[in-house]
Every structure is written in structure tokens, then in C-alpha cells.
Write a structure and sequence with these properties.
The structure is a homohexamer of 253-residue chains.
Chain A: H1 8-17, E1 20-25, H2 39-55, E2 58-59, H3 82-99, E3 103-108, H4 114-129, E4 141-146, H5 153-161, H6 171-180, H7 203-209, H8 224-247
Parallel strand pairs in A: 1-2, 1-3, 3-4
């Protein structure tokens, strides 16, 4: 159930049986020589829509641009400042709270989003918890799940790629997009085969340390068949994760 | 050429021949009993991608949530506050300026965005024009085009729907989404057939004046065949509009 | 009735019979070789005070500085960033709401304000419509009217100046200030007689396209007699506009 | 020389001989039973324009609304939040810096503005002093002068009103507006004759402590003749103050 | 009673008998050749803790960094922008209001904080006084006391140092830190013995006018014995000041 | 070397040999029945000062209030909103960058700070990486280290407390404060001995799940002897961590 394909009456009906919503959140940033700039948005979007379909859960439009300042040294990368992303998440959640939603399941595709999204949850909660007299607003719950943290995914990726999976432009995420978008499979040679690891500071420093954008990965190993396995495993894991989240906290409508 | 399906090297190559980019911007808001909540994002996304394909122009990810506070009385509508949308557009443009883009063609699907997007352009320009010592940043140009203002579109919609097209949840936009997403065609009865007109203030006032969300329209007339005609006419008109914009101002790369 | 010349007890008495207020809003920016920098504030101030006098309606102090970033290439122009103007309008309206005002009639003298003022209305409405639990605040209504859009004004200006009226530093606005402030009539030669038209981007681009500041106008045609006719026509038109606004929405005090 | 009555070419010429500007700043707030809501704006506006006339110094439009949150318990009072006023002053100064102004003389009419305007100066300076690499912007100087602190004014007011002058809605400021705007002289009885003194906290507390709005004053003693004396003394004192400010710091153009 | 050394249950018990709290606020900035960078935080911290100990009043953690933009020309100085300090004070007070505190006694050690802290009080009050419907929050009171304004302190410093005390890096504040932190007494020669006076603008201007950081002082005269006298006098004066503040306004718990 | 006890000349001399600084950051929040409200600030402050002493590294004043919205249900807890903490960290770093510092080692004592501090680093980097023309500012590096992540600490705590250490109000952090502040050791009975675990949402939800404030811990086991061991182990680990950070990146002064 994608929100964008519903009418408002269908959403109103949905709220009679659930107050939870899935919100895919990603990034628009370089993913090395053969990774798509949209990788981090495409992965949670693909999984989120599948999850919504399987569980008849509502799926909001993907937040396609996230916090990617460290990738700005590479053409096509777009970032929101953390302060901007805070505001976007605040408005998104507040809009949906008005309709009666109380459980927000952010399905994340980008490690660089974790800090800001977590901070945003606190900023949102602080709107009610920081000032007295605001207790007429019911409690809400926000949760961030990275798709690669779904039960079973890391083990599978280890099996598939060993120590070649890496930290950015990983074999696993590129495989997943190759499975989901077989028309956009890119090939490119890379040197060294396996990219270096290192700390992340600002955009210029990043480009110096990681000249083609990858961190620790050898994504020439990526392939759509691996992507399919990852998709199936992640989907099963997310199903459990989402159900647990909803069961342990949503108010009865 | 969708940015999300490019690698950063492909974007770098694109910048050798063009410094312009198409950015579809819409809204996630109620569109009456048979209109999709995603209508305002789906229309410019569909047209923007077609335009990009035809002209080999780069298309950024769609900004799916816009300024829709007046629709918050209807389930599923999501808004950014104008101040938040200002920041989103500022960061988006500033990110792309870093890579060398200088001409930003926002293809808009939502009347409620016009004021805030126009204000955002001034906020962006003010970053350089308001303070001395910032002249080392080259001039940039931002333009907002509503798809329904593309040459030929209004005349066609008049022919197709006469005075039943309306102001919100229009026959034409719903026809366009029916053409683009034939699996998501909704049917619903509406009373009265043609919705009333009136001024727009806040969300509660809006819901009182326009009980099912429509303004001035009779979208039971919408149909995918009309949508196709609108699509073709709009696409041709936008092609002209985009070319003029780029020709009259972009720096030679 | 100017607010600045009232005591608070007089305002309290006014609120017994009306909850509406007129707020002139303009700009402080270049108006070409013979136009006053204050033109856009002086026009709505003059008309707003006359309207208030005629209808015994309260008139707030003029907001003299608006959104004028594109004029910053010319000495003396002052702008607020759109985000600043949003905050100013929010505070102004919120202050007056506390006293019981619910209908805000902004009388505008500057095209460059329209986007930001419209966005500000949404920002203000969003304070109540975006979050649940805020419904104890009564609905308010904000309206922006450009003085040149008052019924009858455009037709008159067409008669008076034909295609020489222009888009900025127009014959009509300069005539109006010449009528209102006959001691400040300026003379200057201009080449070409009629200034060019063109799109508006940032301040440096503006100065390149429009070297003496005018857009499309030949303000050597301006004269105080024309100004008087414009004043009378605009005042009559605004009277109708204001009455309609107040009649169709203000709560009974 | 009022900025609003100049053309941009006249301002450009002015900048050849001076880089200083006078900016009257006031407030729109209750001033007790016989004081005008505009008192705090009218006083510095009257004096600032006279000062500008005498010294051929440029005078910006009056900032009519200031920081008046503690007066919001009385009808007609309007406030900007301190954070909003910070932004307004920042944009105003930054706009003028672009044209070459470097000495900003704020002539103040409202005690409640002092803290926020002083904080704004630091916010403005911090734009350059807080970050390295911004030293290409020349130093600027901002000064706030309260008209009642002009040499000679306090002594005169003591002579005229003794201990009846008070702290808000003072005999002296009301006399000054009566002199400047003789058509708006108000009469009202007040009990007690002399209002109480006390600390200032929020708007509700203020209204409880000072039921008719006055602090420590007996403004039935105000009269236009006293206003004229105050005007003359203040004008002479401000002339000295302004000249000293300009002489001791403005760069040679 | 230092908050940092309490458990939450001890604070809950404290709130049964008092709703007031002492908050020391200082700055981290140069204090000339023999003054500590922490001087302005150490003075109110020392006095605030002693005051809290004597009166069994709760003392919050010291706000060690304040508004010091004009000192940024000297190594080690740290500033918050006024807008940032506004937010810090807002959050601090709002957090404590939630627990039931209603009287906030800011004990200040830095003249440069006065404007911004005062503005912050208005910003905090405006949260309730600016918008209707927020009256469910009880009134709160905030007060700023500079330790050198405690009764008796200025007279004592005059006796001790005459006209050598100065305006920044004063003999008295350096004496106070020498008394409180005898292990950190610094010695340095200074030329001239007594520093110049002058106006304060931005950081670069400050460094030009006051090359070693002092204003008007001769802090070679500072000594810990004088510091002890100042400490005792200030503590007694602050005791009176605090008791008066609490007695005249705190709600009965 | 504590910054607060230095003169500016001493800081200038320090910058000749190092461009790095240690900044302890904590929180002011409940720590259960026997934990101090200042625990999270006291731990990194104690360790940071010891580290600075050992390595002759400069230590900034402790940031004592952090992001603690989820603790607001317990008396005495104070939070900054994430957006406020972003601004504080931005100003702190920007001030120090002006003096020539380029390596910022934040020593953290509060898990709830991690997200916001990490987001702040991106916000700070974005000031230069997000906009072209700002490359005249040299690269800076910010690092957050939680003291409990110093090599060896977790193993030691496991030995000392096994599964009773917990997640909030842990045996280890309370032991550390007992060692550092033996005069403030508190005793209290707790039921159950070991507190429950669970997810963290807003302040009201937190209080319901964790009635006395603890998460997963049994802090009756805390003791100053354990605190001393933890202190020594953490200090050694932090020494390595700090040296590695500085060695791998600071520019040669």
C-alpha cells in the first residue's frame, strides 16, 4: 500500500485498523564507479514497498535525499544539512500525527543518516516533553531500522562476499539495486580491487582518502543473483522487526 | 537520464556538456474521492522523466512532499512548513552548485508550492547578493515551471473538460495520473458533481468549505485517454520552455 | 484610524465592533532614475490610510522593508531575506491574534513580496493546522491584495500610459507617489525611453539586464494628475475588496 | 534626507561623502491612557528626521515594531520576538553594507529594544569575527543611542516633571509626541495619578502589576510646550553624539 | 546544593520547599596578560556555589561559555552567537519549568552577556505571552544579577583600586579568581600600566584598540586578599538580592 | 592544562606546538536512586582533565548540558534540543578554528549525545563543503570518543559487574563518580535490584518503562575502588586514542 497511490478515504480506512506507517529514507550520493547515485534510496524503497505489500502496511513516499555532506566531492551528490533534515522529519511526523498515526517505522538505506535521524526523533519528542501543558498530545514512537541490520542479512552478506563487502558502495547494496533495477547495471574497472578503509571527516578529506568514492569494498563482485538473495532475507527479517515494533507499542485504534 | 540511475562519473561527463538539471517537485496531499494522494508528485515526475529522456537532460529525484498545510484536514496529507521547504531547496541547489550546475529547472505539480519555491529562489540568491565579499560564487539561475502552464496545455484541458476541470483535484491532473498509472485508477461517486470554489485559508477552514477535498472540479470526467493527450501536449510545451531557459542563460561549460 | 495614533483603550473599543485590520506592506528599493526608493511602501501606506479613514478601519504601521534581494545592486535598496520576513509576519499576526483580531488585510505595494507573504500565511496557519492539540486557537484569515489589482486600476493605467507603464518603476506607481508627495517629484533623463523586459534572477544579473533599474517602463510619463486618478480609482476598488473580505469571514465579535 | 524620498542615484552620490546612516527604531505598544501606541516609534522618527535634515545625513525608514512582549496584555501592542528582531537588523545592516555604508546609528525610542538591539550588533559582528576567511569584508560599526540619553535631556525632564516623569508612558515622551502630532493629543483621567514602579516579567504579570499600562509616571502633566523644549534639547544633544560617532570611526570614503 | 551532586529524588524533595534555582553564567574569553580565560565563569560559579551553600538553594551547572564575539581576536576565547545563547537559555529554563521551577536567578559574571540574556528572557516569556491558548503554563520569572552589582561591591572595589579597577580584566575580578584559585595566580608585565578605554565593536576593532585585551584596568594591582574581601561583600549582597527576588514572586509550592 | 586557567598568551604559545584540544561533553540528567545528576558530565570532565594533564594537552570547559529529552520525566534533568546543541557545537568549534585549532577531540560521557554530536560534526563540515568559494578555510577534524569505549574499559567493567552493569545509571559510571567525588556517594535501596531493559522513546514513555530512572543496572554494586580501576584503565586507553587521532591528521603548526 503506497500512500501516493491511495485516496484520502483509503488512508482514513487504514487508520481504523493501524496507526503505523513505513517511511523509506535514503540518500542521493556517489556509490563508486559501478554503484548508482540513488542506491541508498532505492534499497529501502524497494524493500519498504515489498514489506508494505506483504503486510498491507502503508508506505510513505521515500525521502530520497539525506545527510551526505562527506560525498559532496563527487559529482551528483546532494545533501541536506542535519538541521534541514531535522525539520523535514519533524514536519513529516507532525503531519501524520494529526491524522492519527502514532508509530513511525523509518526504513533506512544510508549509514550517514543514522545520527541525524536519531537526533530528529529527540527533537520531535522534545516538542511535547520539553514543555509543560503539552500533554494533550498522545505519545508517539519513532524507530529507525537499517535494512542491513535486519536479522540474517549480515550473515548472508558475509557468506556472499566475505571481507570484500566493504563499508560504502558495498557489494551487497549494489547487488540489491542490480536485482531491483536490472536495466541499470553498470560495469567499471577499479583500482585497487578492494578500496581502503579510514575515518570520515569533511568532503575534501573524504575525496583525498577515497579517490573513487568506495570504502573497503570490491563491488565488481556485485551481481543481481546475490541481490535477490539479499532481498528475500532482508524482507523476511524486516517483517519480524516491523511486527515487533507495532505489537509492542501502538495504541489500539 | 535520471540522476538516481547514474554513477558519479556519468554526472561528471554530463557536466562537460550541460550545467542544467530538471528537478520535479510535487506534493503529498488529498486529491478528492478519486484522485491519488501522490498526484502532484506523479505528474511532474512523469513529465520530467520523459523530458529528460527526450533531451538527454539530467533529472534529479522528485521532491515528493511540498507545502500542503491547507490539506491537513484530510488523512494522508503531509506538509513541509514553508521555512522547511526553503531550507530543503537551498541545500539541494547549493549541493549541485558545488558540482558546477548553474541552471535549475524546477518542474512543479502543485499550485501551493509556487509561493514558497519562489521565495526559496530569493533566499538562495540572497546568500550571494546580500553580502559583500561573496562574489567569487558564479551566478546561478532558478526557474519554476508549472506543468499546466506549458504552452498548449490549458487550451487542451478547456477543450477536454470545459468548466468542469476545476482548481484542485482537477480532471486534467487526475487524467494524467490515470494515463501514467493505469493500475491505480479509482472510482468514486461525488456530490455535487462539480465542487465549489472559494478562498483558501487554514486546514480547518478548507475542510469546512470543501468537504471532500475538491475545488471546482468534476473529476468523474477524468480518463486515461485524456491523460495521454495532456501528456503529449505538456511534454512538447515543456521541451520548448526548457530549451529557452537553458539557451538564454547557462554559461558555456 | 492609524494604530500608531490610538491609545490601547481605543483599540479595545474598536475590537468591540471589528476584528479586522489593514496592514500596508511595501519595500525599500530602487525605482529607476526618477522613482523614489520608498515608492512601494508609500503607495500602500497612502492608500491604506485613506481606506482606513473612509471605513473607520484600523491601519497598522507600514511594513516598509520587504523582499528586495534582486535590487541590491542599486544603492539604498534594503531587503529582508524571505525567512526573516516570514518571522516578521508571523510575530505581527500572532501579536494581534492575542488581542482578538482574526482578519488580516495586507495591502501590498511590491510584486517581489507576493511569494514570501503568501508563504508566510501558510507558515502562520501551520502553527495550528500542523499539530494536534492546538485547536483551542480560533481560525484566522489572512489576505494579500496588491493595490494595482484593485478593480479598475489596470484599465485606468492602460488608458493613461498604454504599453509604457511597464513592470518595475512603472508610470502608475511613480505618478501615485508624485500625487501623494508633490515635494519629492524627481526629473531625470532616461535611455532608452522605455526600459527592456526580462526575467529576474539575482542582484548582479538584474543590474546587468536592467542598467538603470527600470523594467519595461517609461516613467518620464509619470505625473501627479495621473496619480490622483489612480488614487481615486484604487481607493474605490479597495473599499469593495476589503468589505467583501471582512463580510465573508470575520467572526461576529 | 529621508532614504524613502531619494532615488538610488542620490544615495550613490551621498556615499561619495558619507558612509553613515541614521536608523530610527521604536515600538508599537500601549502607552497608558493618554499615550499613543506609536509613541516609541514617533519620537525617534521625529528626532531622526530632524537630525538628518540638519546634518544632511541619510535617514532610513523607521523600524516601527520592536521588542514589546511585556505589553501584549494591552490591545494593539505588537512585538517581534528577540530572535526575529535579530534577523531584521542583520538583514538591514547587511543590505546597506553591500552599498558601502559602514557606520550605523540606531536612534532608539524604546527601552525594551536595548537588549535585543545590542545582541543583534554582536550577531552581526559575529558573521565576520566568528569565522576565518571572512576578512575580506571591511569592519563596520553599529551604535545605539536612546534619544532620552542625549546630553541635556534628562536634566530638562527632571526640571519639567520632577519625580512624575516615570519609567513607561513618561511625561516626556508623551509631551514629545504631543508637540510633533498636535492633532493626536489625548486626554484621560488616571488613578492613581502617579503609577507604581516594579519589575518587568511576562505580559500577564505586567498587566497585573501595571493595570493601565503606565510605570511610575503621571502623564496628565504632559504638554506640547514641554515637548518642544525636549525636542530642541534632544536634537542638539543628538547632533553632538552623531558627529562624534561618525568622526571617530568611519573610513574615509 | 549543587544540582550535579544531587539525585533526582533530592531535587524532587527540594521542590517541595522551593521553586527557585541559581544558575551561574559566565564566559570563556581572554582577560589580559594576568587574567584567566575562565575568569567570568569562575567568579559567578564560586559565588553561586557559596550562596547556594549558605541558603540551601539549588545551584545549576555553570554556563561557562557566553557571548564573547568581541574577544575572538585573542587565542582561546570562545563565543556563542547571541541566537545560540538564546536557544540554550530557552531550553534550560523550559527543562526546569517542567519539573516545577518558576524562579530563575541567573548570577552573571560577564558584561557582554547582559544584552543577550535579557533578550532571552523576553524570548522565553514570548513563548506564552505571544500566543493565545497557552495560558495553561504558569507564569515564570527570570532575573539577571551581575555579581559586581551586589550591594556594597562597587564601593569596596573603589576603595581597593580607585580608578585602576577598569572595565575588562578588572582588578576586582582577577583578585576574586586569585582568592578562589590561588594555584593559578599569574604574573605579567603590562604596558601601559593602566589600559585605555574605548567603545566596543567587532573582534578586529577590539584587538586594535586594546592590544593586550584589557580595558581601563591595571590588574597588576590584583591580589588574593582583596579577592577575599570582595568575595565576602559580594556574597552578603547576593544573599539579600536572592531572598528579595524569591520572596516577591515565587508561588507557594 | 585547563583552558579556563590559562591566559590568552599561554594559549597562543600552546598553538605553536599543537592544534588539538580536548572538549569534555556530558549531560545533566537523572541517574537513578544513587547516581548523581551530574554523572555524565563529571566522568568525561575527570578523565579529560587527567588526560590533558598527562599529555600537556589543552582541555576546554566541560559542556555540562547535553541531549537528555528522554530524562525530562525526572526532577532536575535538563536538556538542550538537538537543534540547540548543534548550534552550540558549531559556535564552539568555529571560535576555536579562528585561533588555529584544527583537531577537536570530544570526550563524551552520555550515550544520548552521540547522535546529535555526530550530526553537529556534519553540520560544521557542511559550512565549508556545501558551498563553493569557501575553500580558503583549512580542513578541520572532529572526533567523538565515549570514555567507556576506550580500549580495555568494557572488559574491565564486565569483570567487575558482569551483567549488572546495565545501560543507564550503570555501576561503572557511578563507581567512577564515587572515586572522583567521594564526598557525594549516595546510598539508596532499589527494587528490583537490576532494572529492566527496553527501548527509549519520549520522556513520558521512559518514566513508565523505567520508574526509578535506571536501565538494566544494579548500581548498589558501585564502589569507589572499582571507580579507581575504571579511571586508570580508561585514562590509559584514552591516551592511546587521543595520540592516534592527533598523529593521523593534525596539520603541522
Amino acid at each position: 500500500m503506497e500512500l501516493r497511490f491511495c485516496t484520502w478515504q483509503e488512508v482514513a480506512a487504514y487508520l481504523e485498523r493501524s496507526r503505523a506507517i513505513i517511511i523509506p529514507i535514503g540518500s542521493t550520493e556517489q556509490h563508486g564507479p559501478n554503484g548508482l547515485i540513488g542506491t541508498d534510496a532505492l534499497c529501502p524503497e524497494t524493500l519498504g514497498r515489498a514489506l508494505g505489500g506483504k503486510l498491507e502496511a502503508l508506505v510513505a513516499p521515500t525521502i530520497s535525499v539525506g545527510m551526505a555532506q562527506h560525498h559532496l566531492g563527487f559529482a551528483g551528490s546532494i545533501t541536506l544539512r542535519p538541521s534541514t533534515l531535522l525539520a523535514v522529519l519533524q514536519d513529516t511526523v507532525n503531519s501524520l500525527v494529526r491524522h492519527g498515526f502514532d508509530s513511525f517505522y523509518f526504513l533506512n538505506g544510508h549509514g550517514g543518516n543514522i545520527a541525524t535521524v536519531s537526533a530528529a526523533f529527540s527533537e520531535i519528542y522534545a516538542q511535547t516533553s520539553l514543555q509543560p501543558g503539552s500533554h494533550n498530545r498522545p505519545s508517539i514512537r519513532c524507530k529507525l531500522t537499517n535494512w542491513w541490520d535486519a536479522p540474517g542479512v549480515k550473515a548472508l552478506c558475509g557468506e556472499l562476499f566475505g571481507d570484500q563487502d566493504g563499508g560504502h558502495a558495498t557489494c551487497s547494496e549494489i547487488s540489491l539495486t542490480q536485482y531491483a533495477y536490472p536495466d541499470s547495471i553498470k560495469t567499471a574497472e577499479m583500482t585497487p580491487a578492494k578500496a581502503p578503509y579510514g575515518p570520515i571527516y569533511d568532503a575534501e578529506d573524504y575525496r583525498r582518502r577515497f579517490p573513487d568514492g568506495r570504502i573497503g569494498s570490491n563491488p565488481t563482485l556485485a551481481n543481481p543473483e546475490a541481490g535477490e538473495k539479499i532481498f528475500e532475507t532482508a524482507l523476511a527479517g524486516l517483517e519480524t522487526d516491523y511486527k515487533t515494533f507495532v505489537a509492542n507499542g501502538a495504541r489500539t485504534p
